[in-house]
Automatic annotation (TrEMBL):
Coiled coil: none
Main subcellular location of this protein, as a coarse class: cytoplasm
E.C. number(s) listed in UniProt: 2.7.4.25
Gene Ontology cellular component annotations, sorted alphabetically: cytosol
Residues binding ATP, per UniProt: G10, P11, S12, G13, S14, G15, K16, G17, T18
Taxonomy of the source species: Bacteria, Pseudomonadati, Pseudomonadota, Gammaproteobacteria, Chromatiales
Protein name in the entry: Cytidylate kinase
Localization per Swiss-Prot or TrEMBL: Cytoplasm
Native source species: Nitrosococcus watsoni (strain C-113)
Matching SUPFAM superfamilies: P-loop containing nucleoside triphosphate hydrolases (SSF52540)
Catalysed reactions listed for this entry: CMP + ATP = CDP + ADP; dCMP + ATP = dCDP + ADP
PANTHER family per UniProt: CYTIDYLATE KINASE, CYTIDYLATE KINASE/PANTOATE-BETA-ALANINE LIGASE
Family classification: Belongs to the cytidylate kinase family. Type 1 subfamily.
Protein backbone atom coordinates (compact mmCIF):
# COMPACT_ATOMS: atom_id res chain seq x y z
CA UNK A 1 0.00 0.00 0.00
CA UNK A 2 3.01 2.29 0.30
CA UNK A 3 3.86 1.74 -3.34
CA UNK A 4 2.77 4.80 -5.37
CA UNK A 5 0.31 4.50 -8.24
CA UNK A 6 -0.56 6.95 -11.02
CA UNK A 7 -3.77 6.28 -12.95
CA UNK A 8 -4.69 7.49 -16.43
CA UNK A 9 -8.32 6.82 -17.33
CA UNK A 10 -10.35 7.88 -20.32
CA UNK A 11 -12.15 6.74 -23.45
CA UNK A 12 -10.46 4.95 -26.33
CA UNK A 13 -8.35 7.18 -28.52
CA UNK A 14 -7.85 9.82 -25.86
CA UNK A 15 -4.12 9.05 -25.79
CA UNK A 16 -4.22 7.58 -22.29
CA UNK A 17 -2.15 4.51 -23.22
CA UNK A 18 0.62 6.55 -24.79
CA UNK A 19 0.66 9.01 -21.89
CA UNK A 20 0.74 6.22 -19.29
CA UNK A 21 3.58 4.47 -21.09
CA UNK A 22 5.60 7.67 -21.31
CA UNK A 23 5.07 8.39 -17.64
CA UNK A 24 6.13 4.85 -16.71
CA UNK A 25 9.22 5.21 -18.85
CA UNK A 26 10.05 8.64 -17.39
CA UNK A 27 9.63 7.46 -13.79
CA UNK A 28 11.08 3.98 -14.46
CA UNK A 29 7.97 2.47 -12.93
CA UNK A 30 5.91 -0.58 -13.91
CA UNK A 31 3.12 -0.16 -16.44
CA UNK A 32 -0.25 -1.91 -16.67
CA UNK A 33 -2.50 -1.63 -19.72
CA UNK A 34 -5.71 -2.84 -18.06
CA UNK A 35 -7.65 -2.66 -21.34
CA UNK A 36 -5.29 -5.30 -22.75
CA UNK A 37 -6.47 -7.66 -20.00
CA UNK A 38 -10.09 -7.27 -21.07
CA UNK A 39 -9.05 -7.63 -24.70
CA UNK A 40 -7.06 -10.83 -24.02
CA UNK A 41 -10.02 -12.23 -22.10
CA UNK A 42 -12.30 -11.49 -25.07
CA UNK A 43 -9.84 -13.23 -27.37
CA UNK A 44 -9.59 -16.25 -25.05
CA UNK A 45 -13.40 -16.46 -24.82
CA UNK A 46 -13.58 -16.55 -28.59
CA UNK A 47 -10.83 -19.19 -28.77
CA UNK A 48 -12.62 -21.41 -26.23
CA UNK A 49 -16.05 -20.73 -27.78
CA UNK A 50 -17.47 -19.12 -24.65
CA UNK A 51 -20.45 -16.87 -25.33
CA UNK A 52 -20.05 -13.18 -24.38
CA UNK A 53 -22.97 -13.44 -21.93
CA UNK A 54 -21.90 -16.66 -20.20
CA UNK A 55 -20.77 -14.89 -17.03
CA UNK A 56 -19.91 -18.07 -15.09
CA UNK A 57 -17.61 -19.49 -17.72
CA UNK A 58 -16.12 -16.05 -18.34
CA UNK A 59 -15.43 -15.64 -14.63
CA UNK A 60 -13.60 -18.99 -14.52
CA UNK A 61 -11.69 -18.04 -17.65
CA UNK A 62 -10.71 -14.67 -16.15
CA UNK A 63 -9.52 -16.33 -12.94
CA UNK A 64 -7.31 -18.79 -14.79
CA UNK A 65 -6.36 -16.61 -17.74
CA UNK A 66 -2.82 -17.44 -18.80
CA UNK A 67 -1.79 -13.94 -19.85
CA UNK A 68 1.70 -12.47 -19.70
CA UNK A 69 2.95 -8.98 -20.38
CA UNK A 70 6.55 -8.37 -21.27
CA UNK A 71 7.32 -4.69 -20.95
CA UNK A 72 8.71 -3.02 -23.99
CA UNK A 73 11.73 -0.74 -23.88
CA UNK A 74 11.79 2.94 -24.79
CA UNK A 75 8.08 3.51 -24.34
CA UNK A 76 7.16 0.69 -26.74
CA UNK A 77 3.91 -1.09 -25.88
CA UNK A 78 4.29 -4.28 -23.86
CA UNK A 79 4.31 -7.59 -25.70
CA UNK A 80 1.23 -9.60 -24.77
CA UNK A 81 0.98 -13.40 -24.65
CA UNK A 82 -2.09 -15.60 -24.26
CA UNK A 83 -1.26 -19.22 -23.49
CA UNK A 84 2.28 -18.59 -24.78
CA UNK A 85 1.09 -17.22 -28.14
CA UNK A 86 1.89 -13.58 -28.89
CA UNK A 87 -1.42 -11.78 -29.41
CA UNK A 88 -0.39 -8.12 -29.59
CA UNK A 89 -1.79 -7.61 -33.09
CA UNK A 90 -5.02 -9.57 -32.62
CA UNK A 91 -6.03 -7.74 -29.44
CA UNK A 92 -5.51 -4.33 -31.06
CA UNK A 93 -8.21 -5.03 -33.64
CA UNK A 94 -11.41 -3.01 -33.47
CA UNK A 95 -13.57 -6.17 -33.12
CA UNK A 96 -11.56 -7.26 -30.10
CA UNK A 97 -12.01 -3.87 -28.42
CA UNK A 98 -15.74 -4.06 -29.01
CA UNK A 99 -15.94 -7.64 -27.70
CA UNK A 100 -13.87 -6.58 -24.67
CA UNK A 101 -16.27 -3.77 -23.85
CA UNK A 102 -19.19 -6.23 -23.88
CA UNK A 103 -17.66 -8.71 -21.43
CA UNK A 104 -16.28 -5.80 -19.36
CA UNK A 105 -19.85 -4.97 -18.34
CA UNK A 106 -20.15 -8.25 -16.38
CA UNK A 107 -19.63 -8.02 -12.61
CA UNK A 108 -18.11 -11.52 -12.44
CA UNK A 109 -15.49 -10.63 -15.03
CA UNK A 110 -14.53 -7.36 -13.34
CA UNK A 111 -14.29 -9.04 -9.95
CA UNK A 112 -12.01 -11.75 -11.30
CA UNK A 113 -9.69 -9.25 -12.98
CA UNK A 114 -9.56 -6.83 -10.04
CA UNK A 115 -7.04 -8.79 -7.97
CA UNK A 116 -4.95 -9.56 -11.01
CA UNK A 117 -4.73 -5.84 -11.79
CA UNK A 118 -3.80 -4.93 -8.21
CA UNK A 119 -0.98 -7.48 -8.34
CA UNK A 120 0.86 -5.20 -10.80
CA UNK A 121 1.53 -2.75 -7.96
CA UNK A 122 5.20 -3.38 -7.30
CA UNK A 123 8.13 -1.19 -6.23
CA UNK A 124 9.14 1.41 -7.19
CA UNK A 125 5.66 2.29 -8.52
CA UNK A 126 2.95 1.66 -11.09
CA UNK A 127 1.45 3.71 -13.89
CA UNK A 128 -1.75 2.21 -15.24
CA UNK A 129 -4.37 3.13 -17.80
CA UNK A 130 -7.98 2.07 -18.31
CA UNK A 131 -11.51 3.11 -17.46
CA UNK A 132 -11.80 2.53 -13.69
CA UNK A 133 -8.20 2.57 -12.49
CA UNK A 134 -8.74 5.73 -10.40
CA UNK A 135 -12.32 5.03 -9.35
CA UNK A 136 -12.29 1.31 -8.47
CA UNK A 137 -8.99 -0.51 -8.80
CA UNK A 138 -6.60 2.05 -7.23
CA UNK A 139 -8.86 4.59 -5.46
CA UNK A 140 -5.90 5.65 -3.26
CA UNK A 141 -3.65 6.52 -6.25
CA UNK A 142 -1.31 9.48 -5.66
CA UNK A 143 -2.20 11.12 -8.97
CA UNK A 144 -5.28 10.50 -11.12
CA UNK A 145 -5.51 11.84 -14.63
CA UNK A 146 -8.65 11.65 -16.77
CA UNK A 147 -7.77 12.19 -20.41
CA UNK A 148 -10.50 13.04 -22.91
CA UNK A 149 -10.75 14.22 -26.52
CA UNK A 150 -13.69 14.88 -28.81
CA UNK A 151 -15.20 11.76 -30.43
CA UNK A 152 -14.28 13.08 -33.88
CA UNK A 153 -10.65 13.61 -32.92
CA UNK A 154 -10.44 10.13 -31.36
CA UNK A 155 -11.88 8.54 -34.48
CA UNK A 156 -9.45 10.53 -36.62
CA UNK A 157 -6.47 9.31 -34.55
CA UNK A 158 -7.64 5.73 -34.80
CA UNK A 159 -8.11 6.12 -38.55
CA UNK A 160 -4.56 7.41 -38.92
CA UNK A 161 -3.17 4.53 -36.84
CA UNK A 162 -4.98 1.95 -38.94
CA UNK A 163 -3.84 3.57 -42.17
CA UNK A 164 -0.25 3.55 -40.98
CA UNK A 165 -0.59 -0.18 -40.38
CA UNK A 166 -1.94 -0.58 -43.89
CA UNK A 167 -5.41 -1.48 -42.64
CA UNK A 168 -8.28 0.08 -44.55
CA UNK A 169 -10.91 1.88 -42.48
CA UNK A 170 -13.84 4.20 -42.85
CA UNK A 171 -13.76 7.33 -40.71
CA UNK A 172 -17.54 7.57 -40.43
CA UNK A 173 -17.82 3.93 -39.31
CA UNK A 174 -15.02 4.40 -36.81
CA UNK A 175 -16.80 7.42 -35.35
CA UNK A 176 -19.96 5.35 -34.98
CA UNK A 177 -18.13 2.43 -33.36
CA UNK A 178 -16.30 4.71 -30.96
CA UNK A 179 -19.55 6.40 -29.94
CA UNK A 180 -21.15 3.00 -29.35
CA UNK A 181 -18.26 1.75 -27.24
CA UNK A 182 -18.25 5.02 -25.24
CA UNK A 183 -21.92 4.60 -24.55
CA UNK A 184 -21.47 0.99 -23.36
CA UNK A 185 -18.53 1.95 -21.16
CA UNK A 186 -20.23 5.01 -19.67
CA UNK A 187 -23.68 3.59 -19.16
CA UNK A 188 -22.85 0.24 -17.58
CA UNK A 189 -23.78 -0.23 -13.93
CA UNK A 190 -20.44 -1.50 -12.67
CA UNK A 191 -17.33 0.65 -12.83
CA UNK A 192 -18.58 2.95 -15.59
CA UNK A 193 -16.17 5.25 -17.37
CA UNK A 194 -16.13 8.48 -15.39
CA UNK A 195 -13.50 10.67 -13.77
CA UNK A 196 -12.74 10.01 -10.09
CA UNK A 197 -13.78 12.92 -7.87
CA UNK A 198 -10.12 13.72 -7.28
CA UNK A 199 -8.96 13.25 -10.88
CA UNK A 200 -7.42 16.03 -12.97
CA UNK A 201 -9.30 16.24 -16.26
CA UNK A 202 -7.27 17.02 -19.35
CA UNK A 203 -8.72 17.48 -22.84
CA UNK A 204 -6.23 16.36 -25.48
CA UNK A 205 -8.36 17.28 -28.53
CA UNK A 206 -5.96 20.01 -29.63
CA UNK A 207 -2.79 18.66 -28.05
CA UNK A 208 -0.03 16.48 -29.46
CA UNK A 209 1.13 13.71 -27.12
CA UNK A 210 4.36 15.57 -26.33
CA UNK A 211 2.29 18.57 -25.19
CA UNK A 212 0.07 16.36 -23.02
CA UNK A 213 3.21 14.91 -21.46
CA UNK A 214 4.69 18.38 -20.82
CA UNK A 215 1.46 19.49 -19.20
CA UNK A 216 1.42 16.47 -16.87
CA UNK A 217 5.11 16.56 -15.84
CA UNK A 218 4.71 19.27 -13.14
CA UNK A 219 1.88 17.25 -11.57
CA UNK A 220 4.35 14.49 -10.75
CA UNK A 221 6.25 16.53 -8.17
CA UNK A 222 5.59 15.14 -4.73
CA UNK A 223 3.78 12.13 -6.16
CA UNK A 224 6.82 9.95 -6.73
O1 LIG B 1 -8.57 0.69 -23.30
P1 LIG B 1 -9.01 -0.31 -24.30
O2 LIG B 1 -9.67 0.28 -25.50
O3 LIG B 1 -7.93 -1.26 -24.67
O4 LIG B 1 -10.12 -1.20 -23.54
C1 LIG B 1 -10.95 -2.11 -24.21
C2 LIG B 1 -12.27 -2.23 -23.46
O5 LIG B 1 -12.04 -2.85 -22.19
C3 LIG B 1 -12.94 -0.89 -23.12
O6 LIG B 1 -13.83 -0.46 -24.13
C4 LIG B 1 -13.67 -1.18 -21.82
O7 LIG B 1 -14.96 -1.66 -22.05
C5 LIG B 1 -12.86 -2.28 -21.19
N1 LIG B 1 -12.06 -1.79 -20.07
C6 LIG B 1 -12.67 -1.65 -18.85
N2 LIG B 1 -11.96 -1.25 -17.77
C7 LIG B 1 -10.66 -0.96 -17.88
C8 LIG B 1 -10.01 -1.05 -19.13
C9 LIG B 1 -10.76 -1.46 -20.22
O8 LIG B 1 -13.87 -1.88 -18.73
N3 LIG B 1 -9.99 -0.59 -16.80
Amino acid sequence: KDIPVITVDGPSGSGKGTLAQRLAQHLEWHYLDSGAMYRVLALAADKHSIAPNDSQQLEALAQNLDVRFISGLGGMPARVFLEDVEVGDSIRREECGNAASKIAALAEVRRALLMRQRAFRKTPGLVTDGRDMGTVVFPEAALKIFLTASPYERARRRYKQLKEKGIGANLKNLEKEIAERDRRDCERNIAPLKPADDAIILDSTNLAIKDVFQQVLPWLSGKN
